[in-house]
Amino acid sequence: MNSLFKKLFVLLLALTLVACSGTTDGDNGDNGNGDDVYNVAYLVNGNLGDKSFFDSANEGLEQLKNDGRITLRTIEMGGTDSDKPKWLSMLYEVSESEEYDVIVVGTFQMPDFLKEVATEYPDQKYIIFDDITYVGDNSNVLNLMYKQNELGYVVGALAGSVTTETSIANINEDAVIGFVGGVDSPVINDFLIGYIEGAKSVNSDIKVDIRYTNDYVDTAKAKEFGLSMMNDLKVDVIWGVAGNAGNGAAEAILENNEAWFIGVDSDQEQTFSADLAAITLTSGLKNIGNSLVWVFDELDAGKEYWGTEIALGLADGGVGLVTDKNFDSVVTDDIKAIVQTAIDGVKGGSIEVPSAIGPNAVDIPAARDAVRP
């Protein structure tokens, strides 16, 4: 009996020691490779299943979790106006808990909430993706952004090549492409300048019909623009860079059946209805998941960027192009090769894409005038 008691005591002591050696709240563990295991909370100001930014971020974080590099708590907070108070209260709740090394949020709807909470909890680290509203205001916040000018260059090389390839359905002989932007702003014009330069790289005489909805919701205005582009100028490729508003251009193409649409940010062939997906040639992507993996790669390498903005491009996997579905079946092999050459050139540094942002920003009005139909 005494022998049994001693064995039970030894077993209990061993279990206690193992439990005590585990990761405590707010402390990093070790994944067995000498790297820290970070406790991460991902607050979704919407719901998963959007096949866009929220899902992309979740895929990157799930990859990190499955690789044993982070623990992950994902909180879906809902995306309606009535849910917005929950965004702030949940951000406060997870910050106050001190359980997480990093809290991840995203999109243009979150910066005001994040600034308030990040200021209140200066020792808590935060990542916000696809927003630069308060860059540098808080030394505990990393703003993750994406080089939309590089993305624009690749899309422009594609559009500029497709627009005269009459073996492709809906394409005419005129070298005129379209761009429907949201607000006439540095970020939207960063997409635009890349688009212009990429198109000019394959056809120096290309013309670009450029219009702005001046918001991100007015699909009717974008549809009107799309119909005018096709009917008046024979535009046969239109890139919509205006959030939901840009989808109106796709609706115009569906109605006229005289062009191809190119989506933005996420794979719009997946998010569109079947009929709109059928006239979508490809989409330019912001790879949110890849960018989050990149951040933790950098952390493991001892590199931190808190209090700054990091913009990731083609070389970092931060942006990219959908190359399956319609792109694969519709685009000719010669044009695919042109697009790949553009990608390789930007990645390798032999092609430097101008930008509409920063001290060396290009003259956008002059760039627009130079390609005006």
Describe the protein:
With 373 residues, this protein is α/β, with parallel strands linked by helices. It has two domains: 24-146, Rossmann fold (3-Layer(aba) Sandwich), CATH 3.40.50.2300; 148-286 and 317-370, Response regulator (Rossmann fold, 3-Layer(aba) Sandwich), CATH 3.40.50.2300. The protein is 44% helix and 19% strand. The chain contains 14 helices and 13 strands. It has helices at 2-20, 53-66, 84-97, 111-120, 148-162, 186-202, 219-233, 247-256, 268-271, 274-278, 288-300, 325-330, 333-348, 364-370, and strands at residues 29-30, 36-44, 70-76, 102-106, 125-129, 141-146, 176-181, 207-212, 237-241, 260-265, 280-286, 309-312, 319-321. Strands 1, 2, 3, 4, 5, 6 and 12 form a seven-stranded mixed sheet that branches. Strands 8-7-9-10-11-13 form a six-stranded mixed sheet, with helices on both faces. Helix 3 packs parallel to helix 4 (111-120). It is globular and about 60 Å long. The chain starts with a helix and ends with a helix. Residues 1-27 have low confidence and may be disordered.
Features:
single chain, 373 residues, alpha/beta, Rossmann fold, 2 domains, 7-stranded mixed β-sheet, 6-stranded mixed β-sheet, 14 helices, 44% helix, disordered N terminus
